[in-house]
Specification:
Radius of gyration: 17 Å
Distance between the termini: 35 Å
Structural class: mainly beta
Shape: globular
Helix content: under 10%
Number of strands: 14
Order of helices and strands: EEEHEEEEEEEEEEHEH
Largest sheet: 10 strands, mixed
Strand content: 25-35%
């Protein structure tokens, strides 16, 4: 299924280093973005460690009948129907650094498809996410909807393109100017089947929302998970609603629980 809503306010400028104007605001990364903020924090990045049980695994190599590094309690939350999983291994409870690994299930066996350095909430992780707490929620969430300021790159998920709705009110020269070129909504406190920028919060505004996978800017976020451009393009082209993709995310300690 593909849904593409295109509402450009002006001709599209250069992809990188251009003068794209940020228009409007997006309720994203758990907070309403305003000038001078965004999903980021202080600069600084280190490459996180490998995925437990898959450190030496090559793309396409089987890793077992369970997702590596995911313990019994978390594993019980993964739907039986899921045949694609993005596992975000956070370095620690209070770290913004993580590793995102894409696994796909072939028959009874999971295979490691690809991995990328990633970032999560600038203050780490929480099992009780609240608006503006600077932490990403630990849990298992479905992935059903995508979009961005750029045209559909071939997404299998429903894709909403909109030049205005994803804009972050930041100058194009700022580090966050391309954060929302591509986004995949994490189904935390949102309506499935709605655009990522939809403001509905079924569990209440205080529980946050607008938590996405989106383009990395080199440091921590307000709650979102960020990946390099190549990672976002891969996920958009590979994640298939017929394979019921999920994201399993949290610090390594709680993922093992």
């Amino acid at each position: 299924m593909r849904i593409s809503t295109v509402t450009p306010s002006s001709p599209r400028p250069t992809r990188r280093g251009g003068a794209r104007h940020a228009i409007g605001a997006a309720l994203a990364c758990g907070v309403l973005l305003v000038t001078g903020t965004g999903c980021g924090h202080e600069a600084g990045h280190k490459v996180p460690g490998g995925a437990p049980g898959a450190v030496s695994a090559s793309p396409g190599e089987a890793v077992g009948t369970r997702l590596p590094g995911v313990g019994d309690r978390m594993w019980e939350r993964v739907p039986d129907s899921a045949r694609q999983a993005v596992v975000v291994y956070g370095d620690s409870r209070n770290s913004p650094d993580s590793l995102a690994v894409l696994y796909e299930k072939r028959g009874p066996t999971w295979e490691r498809t690809a991995s990328w350095p990633a970032h999560n909430g600038r203050l780490g992780w929480t099992t009780d996410h609240q608006m503006d707490d600077g932490r990403s929620p630990v849990g298992v969430f479905t992935l059903t909807d995508a979009g961005g300021t750029l045209k559909d790159p071939g997404s299998r998920l429903a894709y909403w393109q909109d030049d205005n709705a994803y804009a972050s009110m930041l100058n194009p020269e700022e580090v966050h100017a391309h954060d929302f070129d591509y986004v995949i909504a994490i189904d935390y406190n949102r309506l499935k089947g709605a655009p990522p920028f939809d403001w509905s919060r079924p569990d209440g505004v205080e529980k946050g929302g607008g938590i996405w996978l989106h383009m990395d800017h080199g440091d921590g976020t307000s709650a979102c998970i960020t990946l390099p451009e190549a990672g976002m393009e891969t996920l958009l082209r590979v994640l298939d609603p017929d394979r019921h993709p999920v994201v399993v995310m949290g610090d390594r300690e709680r993922l093992r629980s």
